[in-house]
Amino acid sequence: MNGRVWPAVCGALATLGAACAMLPLVDRTSWILQAALLLTVQSAVGVVARRVPLAAPLTIALQAVTSLLLLTVVFAREQAVAGVLPGPDVLQHFDHLLRESLDDIGRYAIPAPATVALRLLLVGGVLLVGLVVDALAVTYGGAAPAGLPLLALYSIGAGLAKGGSDWLLFLPAAAGYLLLLLAEGRERLSRWGRVFGGQPPSADGPAAIGAGRGPSPVRTGHRIGALVLGIALVAPAVLPSIGGGLLQPRGRGDGPGGSGGTISAVNPLVSLQNSLNQPENREVLRYRVAPPGGQDLYLRIVSLDRFDGASWRASERRITNVPMPMLPAPTGLAPEVRADPVGMSVAAADGYAQNYLPMPYPAQSVDRLTGQWRYEPEGRTLVGDHGQTTRGLRYEVAVLRVQPTAAQLAAAPAPPEALLREYTQVPDNVPAVVARTAREVTAGAANAYEQAIRLQDFFAVGGGFRYDTEVRSGSGHDAIARFLEEKRGFCVHFSFSMAAMARTLGIPARVAVGFTPGSPQADGSMSVGSKDAHAWPELYFEGAGWTRFEPTPSRGTQPEYTVAQAPTAPDPGAPVPAPSRRTVPSAAPSVDPACPPEQRKLAGCPGPASRASAAETGGSTSPLTVAGFALACLAALALPLLPMLWRIRTRARRLGGARSPGEPAARTLAAWRELTDSAWDYGIPPDDSRTPRMAADRIVVTARLEGPAAEAAGRVATAVERTLYAPGPSPAEGLAGDVELVRAGLHASAAPRARLRARLAPRSAVRIVRAAARRRSAAGAALRSGPVGRAWRRVGAALRGIAAGLRTGRRG
Amino acid sequence: MIAGAASTLGGGRSVTRRIMPRYWAEEDRVTTYDERASLSDLTTTADRVRRSVEGVIEGKPEVVRLSLTVLLAEGHLLIEDVPGVGKTMLAKALARSLDCSVRRIQFTPDLLPSDITGVSVYDQQRRDFEFKPGAIFAQIVIGDEINRASPKTQSALLESMEERQVTVDGHTYELPGPFMVVATQNPVEMEGTYPLPEAQRDRFMARVSMGYPSPEAELRMLDAHAGFSPLDDLQPVAHAHEIVKMIDAVRSVHVAESVRRYAVDLVTATRHHPDLRLGASPRATLHLVRAAKAAAALAGRDFALPDDVRALAVAVLAHRLLPTAQAQLNRRTAELIVMDLLQRTPLPDPFGQQPPGARRL
After folding, report:
1. Where is the composition biased (Pro residues) (chain A) (predicted)?
2. Is B11 among the domain residues?
3. Closest Cα of chain A to B254: distance in Å?
4. C-beta of residue B18 within 8 angstroms of C-beta of residue B7
5. Most A CBs within 10 Å: which of B253, B257, B347, B353, as the mutation test of the A interface?
6. Which of A667, A673, A687, A691 to mutate to test the interface with B (most CBs of B within 10 A)?
7. B25 within domain boundaries
8. B205 and B259 co-located in one domain
């Protein structure tokens, strides 16, 4: 027993590789060094314990205790007894930290600040996985199952970073695992003694890589490993309809801190808050409106329509090509509601990479748009495909400024059933206080519109809420309840709460994220800055469609129809004064401003929807893609059938000899090969150590052939003997028929599964592989003996000479 | 140079004519049809002989077949087994089934070489030496318990086996064809015996062990032959000149190049086998191929197969091999080693993908 140093090292490396997947989770990466250090100590303890050797459970226990000590020293030195020994205080402290870390997880979006609690969680988790890996792979000697904890570690990182971590992080994780497998295999092999390489090392320079024992298997291992990794990376990217390939191009954007101040975050809402809290207000968009008066349109990025009780998210929806030239008519917009067309030309800043296209609600058409964009009909948003973002983009949007009157809204009929069902879903875990508050606030309201107005007023005016961007956007099921209690928050809280409450009242609601209109510039254009990022509720009223409300105090503008209404008492008939420009709420366009958006970053942004859409995108694109995909499908289907097809063709060729003129001897031999291959297909492998008659006897006996089939086999064998050993040519008539007879006999005596196998996956198809291997080795031999090979060997010899010289030099 | 076996054909031919190994030169030989039996004649005659012998030797068809093969291949047969299993019976049955002259020599320590070859006696009337032929002058010679005679006597027999002639006092006497020596040897009770040295065993084409009969065969033997010798009923079923023709037919059996190479490979392999102190001689190769021809002819084929070679390899090769002491300790007998070689020597590849040189062990 040597303590199994090498596998232990590989196990630690594999754990670290998988841990790399968690790097994006927190904003500092120094924790991984800490983890690496502790992991090294833990593995070293394992090595020593195995060398002693201790029993396996003892080894593991020792490692666990060591790790606990290490964690104590690093994270809880003050509470420890003598600064080292973990007492009850330490455990309490750990417990406290872990609780806190769970809170932090809930509190922060990714990447989270590297608090002590989170670091403890990360380092501790890595150590735990490292311990399990070490125990499985080294102490108990089974590297393969060690993949499970590694996978768990990787999945946590990759899963939390939504969006998937990028392929660069996949590589260390996968490579680490392969390395572990390799080391274990080598270890196992080495117990058999010295491993002989395929060639003497002198003949092949590169062979020297695997120095020490067993260059050959290691070399093979490298090749296989590299091949597997390559396939895992490339295959999904090549297959058109499987989304989420790691190599799929995703936002070009640079990570945080990249050039041009790209705004990035994992969660649109969080990024929104970050934007609001940024010290400087960076311009993200600049636009002009054509008939002046459209300056109150909020630019919408995405709508969050799924409420899980804690927060709102964008659900994953089907996306299509952008309909040209006009987008479909907006849902629920009736002709009698006033809707003025407004033109808008937008220029996005170079540093603004967002893969949703900011535009007011309901856009009718988008022109001059470059890049790959796709359309999501439900939310009427444009989504960048294949990493397309708004970076530096210029485009023109034609939108409708929908201006319903309060009367029209008040008189709105019930929404369609399907829409109602979908957009009034409220999960059970929403605290009762939400619905109760909603009911209290809207008590006495005559209709949905009035309820909506009262909700808006409750937040904006009467409820005593304060706008405060310092508040954490928060999560957890009681986030809304907490907000209702503390009455401090920013647009996210207001919009979330209002939308949630509207849903409890049975009004279809969702949350839109985007920008407020921004500030007018001297040249008449409008400038939208990162501080204009915003979120607002959209409520649905039949006739007007999705209608914007503005519950956030001191932000944006309240739509005319809501203000006008405020006085209440809708005078049913009374036409509300047509909106002046300032206040005109384009009802439908939920136009508001500015939530700057987001992100870009792979993980990003726009939430699940964008990614899902990107994925789907591939599927339904151009007909060419479809054709390519169909072709690929066909190829994939045909691939397993290749052996069968090859077999059928070969059989026809071998037995068809009677028709094609050929030498009788060749025909006889072809028939013989066909006979032995047929037997092979049915499970009787060919055996070079048998003469034809022995082989035929064996087939007859093994397959229990009788009667004509057995005789036919004998006849073929005799013909082969004559051909091979008798003087003079011998005729080969009727052999094809005999072979068919034997095949029929084989088929009849085989079990159903064997029959199926012989037909679909004939064993003798291995000949293709063997032939290929033979050709390859022949080519390889030719190459080696050719000028290239000679040159290569010379280079290798020279390098070795230099290395040897260096070694002796050093020694001297 | 190994001398080819002397011809058994026409008596008048000069001996020096065939010093070259016969079978390599034979390809060009032209044989006319009246000179040799056709294959079908050969098989029917051989079948008759076989049935006749099997009537005496119960339950040992392979042994009988091998004896016939050796006869047709112009070889000599060494039967080695414990007493009482029918060694002598086999030899006698074979001899009697053929209408040939038969002599039986019981080897004893005091047997003299001249008893075998013959002696010149001075004829006072003619005032000349007259040659009295010894026991060897017969077509089938049965040498019983050959290991009991002194080496000097043994070599007299073995010399005439190889040369097919006897030289006494400067006169050379050709032996009549067909000529076959069937010697028996008793492997137990070796005290006071002179086991055949390797060089002499090499002269026998094949060695065969009778082995005990199966209980059924033994039972049949009791029923059929209780009380009288089965040999008494035996009538000759083939004439000597028929045998000569058959031997001639066997010579013309075709041996393909790949089969010859296989035989050579096999014999060569014995010379490199780690368990063998002594491998087989080139004469063994010659005997192997010749026996394979005879076996092919007996099966009604005019060409030999690797199967023939395989079937005969143990009988033809095993008695010429000397296992090392180590192998003997491990109970690795020569038979087992030959079987092992049969497994390991590559057969001719029907599809000829390997270059010829690659086939060697």
Report:
1. 569-578
2. no
3. 7
4. yes
5. B347
6. A691
7. no
8. no
* Residue A669 · residue A723 · CB < 8 Å: yes
A255-621: CATH topology: C8orf32 fold (3.10.620)
Question: How many folded domains does chain B comprise?
Answer: 2
| Number of C-beta neighbours around residue A267 at 10 A | 24
Query: Is the same domain home to B211 and B72?
Result: yes
pLDDT in tens, A151-204: 888 887 777 765 544 677 788 888 888 888 888 777 777 777 665 544 444 433
* Cβ-defined contact of B307 to A690 (cutoff 8 Å): no
Phi, psi for residue A555 in degrees, rounded to 5: -130, 140
- ipTM score assigned to the predicted complex: 0.77
Query: pLDDT-based confidence at B295, cuts 50/70/90?
Result: very high
Say if the Cβ atoms of A724 and B302 lie within 8 Å: no
Angle between helices B240-251 and B61-72 (to 10 degrees): 80
Read off the CATH number of the domain in which B136 is found. Answer: 3.40.50.300
Q: Which residue shows structure tokens 């005990």?
A: B212
Show residues of chain B in contact with A694, CB under 8 Å: 307
- Indicate which CATH number applies to the domain containing B340: 1.10.8.80
Q: How far apart are CA B54 and CA B64, in angstroms?
A: 7
Rounded distance, CA A498 to CA A501, Å?
5
* Same domain as B130, residue B214: yes
Q: Give the tokens for residue A569.
A: 């008492």
User: Least CB-CB distance to A727: which of B254, B307, B350?
Assistant: B254
Residue that finishes a domain, picked among B252, B269, B287? B252
- Domain match, B236 and B118 both: yes
Q: Where are the domains of chain A?
A: 5-192, 255-621, 649-761, 769-811
Structural domain harbouring B88 = 37-252
**What Cα–Cα distance (Å) separates residue A584 from each residue in A449, A537, A587, B57, B360?**
17, 17, 8, 125, 99
| Residue where a domain terminates, one of B194, B228, B252 | B252
Give the number of A-B residue pairs with CB atoms closer than 8 Å: 46
Residue B64 shares a structural domain with residue B206: yes
- Give per-residue pLDDT as tens, A608-662: 333 333 334 444 456 777 788 888 888 887 777 888 888 888 888 888 755 555 6
d(CA A242, CA A222): 28
